[in-house]
Amino acid sequence: MAKHEVTIKAVAADNASSETKMGRRFGDLAVIRGIIYYKLSPHEQKPFATAFAYGIPNFVPRTLSTICTWLPCFLAGYITFVSVEEAYRRSKRKNPMDYMYEVNPAIPEGCEPK
């Protein structure tokens, strides 16, 4: 693996440039004192450690404890949606009674099939 160094040129007050190394290799910059970094090793992380033991069994009590809050709103929204969609479909449908006495213009009178 190639060793990469990050360098910057710092200009002093007397305009003399000096080279400063910022770290040993790329991504390993110099230590800044007074700042605390918290890291977890990728080998120590367990993202689903308690998901199956506590998360799934806890789903039912949490849902039941809040059902009175969200269920009325959900039902009102669903009923509104269904009724509006049905009213829209009814408004777009043709009324057969409007066309009861209409004559087909493609067939001349007297030539109608029997």
TrEMBL record:
Compartment annotation: Mitochondrion inner membrane
Keyword Transmembrane: yes
Coiled coil, from the record: none
Keywords assigned: Electron transport, Membrane, Mitochondrion, Mitochondrion inner membrane, Respiratory chain, Transmembrane, Transmembrane helix, Transport
Transmembrane segments: 64-84
Location (main, coarse): mitochondrion
GO cellular component: mitochondrial inner membrane; respiratory chain complex III
Pfam families assigned to the protein according to its UniProt record, in alphabetical order: UcrQ
Family statement: Belongs to the UQCRQ/QCR8 family.
Function: Component of the ubiquinol-cytochrome c oxidoreductase, a multisubunit transmembrane complex that is part of the mitochondrial electron transport chain which drives oxidative phosphorylation. The complex plays an important role in the uptake of multiple carbon sources present in different host niches.
Annotated protein name in UniProt: Cytochrome b-c1 complex subunit 8
Organism expressing this protein natively: Spodoptera frugiperda (Fall armyworm)
